[in-house]
Structure formats: structure tokens, C-alpha cells
Design goal:
Helix 1 crosses helix 6 and helix 2 runs parallel beside helix 5. The chain has about 190 residues and is an all-alpha fold. The chain is about 70% helix and about 0% strand.
């Protein structure tokens, strides 16, 4: 039995992402490392797959910031600057936080719950003529096709009759998470 609504889990992930990415220097690096370790423990498969796919982006960020930023030259690394390496570490940590957060969401929520949570978070846009429902169906079809391709299925196409989103009631814990998430986002913006 799930304790939290999928929308609450996604909202908490977004709040953490906003909070962690607005920190600086040592706290940012600690949050980046901590979130990566947590994702490695909980969602190892997703984290390693996303890191493997983004390795060139991470390397490019390190090289561009570390070696193209003017500043104090590093004696042991020709062409690198101290300021550039700090910028590289900070930006790589921000990207690592985002990758770890997405990995945790993918590891904790099954695809149907992920789509259901996103659809719930888009409820304020319900007056736009079924926008959130069309988005949910497209996302669910995409996730199912990706999963079928990953598992080696040839067809990979789902019929409309096989699509279904879980209906999870909102409980007291969801309200507490929403308040904590709002407070964390407010603190991240104001601090």
C-alpha cells in the first residue's frame, strides 16, 4: 500500500531539486554527492543508465568551465583555472542533483503512477480543453513503448484499452508533504 499520492512524491522531488540547486559551494557539492548516493542505493539501474547517457554532457561541462574560464592558473593542470574548476564542480553537482532526483522518481514510482501524479499536478490546467488528459495518454504510450523496447518486445505498441492510471486517494500525509514542499520551495527562493 502506498503511503503518498504520486503527485506528492513528484512535488517533493521538485522541491528538493529547487532547494538543492540554489545552494552554493560546499552545501551544493554535499547535496549532489548525497543525492547521488541515495539514488545509487534506491534506484541504481535508473541512475547508472542516465549517467551513462549523460557522460559526454558531464565531461563537456567539466572541460568548458574548467579550462575556458579565466582566472588563477592551476600549476598541476595546464590550462585549467581555479575559478573555472569551482564553476565546473558546482554545475556538475547541479546536474548530478537533477539526474539523481529523476532517477529516484523513476525508481520509486511505476510508470502509471508517474503519469498519474503528473496529471494530478496539471489539474489547474484542466480548463484548457483536455490538455492534461492528452498529455497523460501520450506520456503513458511513450513510457510503455520505451519499456517494451527495453525488454526486447518487437511490437511495443499499446492499445487504448490497456492504458489505465491508478486512482490514489489523497491522505493527511499528502497535505503534510505539500506543506513541507511549499516551505522548502519558498525557503529556496527567498534564502
Amino acid at each position: 500500500m502506498n503511503i503518498l499520492h504520486p503527485a506528492s512524491v513528484i512535488l517533493l522531488g521538485l522541491a528538493f531539486l529547487l532547494f538543492a540547486s540554489t545552494r552554493s559551494e560546499v552545501l551544493l557539492i554535499a547535496l549532489g554527492g548525497g543525492s547521488a548516493i541515495l539514488a545509487l542505493l534506491i534506484a541504481r539501474f535508473h541512475l547508472l543508465r542516465i549517467l551513462r547517457r549523460s557522460r559526454w554532457l558531464l565531461l563537456t561541462m567539466l572541460l568548458l568551465f574548467g579550462w575556458m574560464t579565466p582566472g588563477t592558473a592551476m600549476p598541476l593542470l595546464p590550462g585549467a583555472t581555479e575559478e573555472g574548476l569551482w564553476l565546473a564542480v558546482e554545475n556538475v553537482a547541479r546536474l548530478l542533483i537533477a539526474i539523481a532526483t529523476v532517477s529516484l522518481l523513476l525508481g520509486v514510482l511505476p510508470p502509471a503512477a508517474l503519469v498519474s501524479g503528473m496529471r494530478s499536478l496539471l489539474a489547474p490546467l484542466a480548463g484548457l480543453g483536455g490538455f492534461r488528459d492528452r498529455l497523460a495518454v501520450r506520456l503513458m504510450l511513450t513510457l510503455e513503448a520505451v519499456e517494451a523496447a527495453r525488454l526486447g518486445g518487437e511490437d511495443g505498441s499499446a492499445t487504448a484499452s490497456s492504458l489505465g492510471l491508478p486512482v490514489v486517494p489523497i491522505g493527511p500525509a499528502d497535505y503534510a508533504v505539500a506543506l513541507c514542499s511549499a516551505g522548502l520551495m519558498l525557503y529556496a527562493v527567498l534564502a
